[in-house]
Amino acid sequence: MKKRIGGLLVAIAVSLAAAGCKEGASVLESSGMEKEMPSPVSSVQPDYQDGTLTYSNLAGDQSRREVEEILLAAGIPEKYVDMLFLWVNDFNQCMSKCETFHLIDGFVTEDIPVVDYGDYYPMSTAWFKTNQRKYGDVLCRIAAFLLMQDQITAKALIEEELWECWQDTQWLYSDNDAISNNPLIDFDQKQQSLYYTVYNPVTITPGCPAEEMAACISEEWQRRGISFAEGRVSLITIWTQYEAQTAAAHAAVLVQDGDAYLLLEKTNPQSPYQATRFSTVEQVKQYMYESIHIEDVRYDMETGTYIVMENDRML
Questions:
Q1: I need a surface site. Which of 2, 62, 125, 167 has the fewest CB within 10 A?
Q2: Residue 45 has what pLDDT?
Q3: Contact 308, 252 (CB under 8 A)
Q4: For the residues of 255-312, what is the DSSP string, one character each?
């Protein structure tokens, strides 16, 4: 699960710092050797089939404009969309030559359940050592919160000293590192208070079933006074367990686009941003599972009991 992956990332960052620094298709780099052609306009709603993935890493102007228009049409403020693409462009410029993946320009369809961006160590080497970044990059939860923050209300904010982010054994330690040190992340105290109130872990009985996990989250969020504005945009989270806690191991933003859906996410701390098209919410749920299961398989870990939530509802 991503709590344990977070500890791995911290260890990698420390080792790279000691070495001298402080998350398939063709690459179309920002300098541009090939011009992307606009997508044809069609009145027929596409059907995104189970077992395939239609996605982009937003490395080209056309795909960025397309996603930007969808986000704005869904009511996400322009200032948040602009900030997101500042982060996207920074990552794509910094990591375009990473050896473990190739950035996808426009939308492509592949017969895969999830994109495998490769092992963490080469990505972290490219970020911290090759590019001399002395701070962690945007995490999935940070990117999702940026776009969703005006849709979320919390009446009982968690006090700062209770945020689970101060020790490297806590769920949100990497979040705090990025928020505190990444110069492109500019969350004020009010935004941070809402952020940690939403994402702070929830206490559970170790090994409890999914239904009990969902009940614990619902009860705790009610105590925190967390509610969501309903509309075309929603927060998608997948919750996993670690000992007596559960928390959102991965987060993304889902936008209804006509009869289809667009899922926008930062796939991992040093791996790419990804916009993915789906026909049903059930496909989104399966994809969220695949997105964490692939990492558990890579590092020989058990995915264990999990739930996927849309806003405050279990899918």
A1: 167
A2: 58
A3: no
A4: EEETTEEEEEEEEETTEEEEEEEES-HHHHHHHHHHHHHHHHHHTT----SEEEEETT
What count of other Cβ atoms lies within 10 Å of the Cβ of residue 266? 27
Helices 281-298, 2-18: crossing angle, 10 deg rounding = 50
For residue 77, which phi and psi values (nearest 5 degrees)?
-55, 145
- Consecutive 10-residue averages of pLDDT for the chain (315 residues): 47 41 32 38 62 95 97 98 98 94 95 94 94 95 98 98 96 96 97 98 96 97 97 97 95 96 95 97 95 88 91 96
Question: For strand 271-278 and strand 306-310, is the pairing parallel, antiparallel, or unpaired?
Answer: unpaired
Alpha-carbon gap, residue 208 to 240, rounded angstroms: 11
Beta strands 152-154 and 202-203 are unpaired
C-alpha 305/C-alpha 310 separation (Å) is 17
SS3 state at 137: coil
State the amino acid at position 140 in one-letter form.
C
pLDDT at residue 5, as a whole number: 46
- Phi then psi for residue 40, to 5 deg, are -65, 145
Burial class (CB in 10 A: 0-12, 13-18, 19+), 125: buried
Q: Interhelix angle for 189-199 vs 140-148, to 10°?
A: 120
Cα–Cα distance measured from residue 76 to residue 81, given in angstroms and rounded to the nearest whole number: 7
Residue tagged 């054994």 (tokens): 169
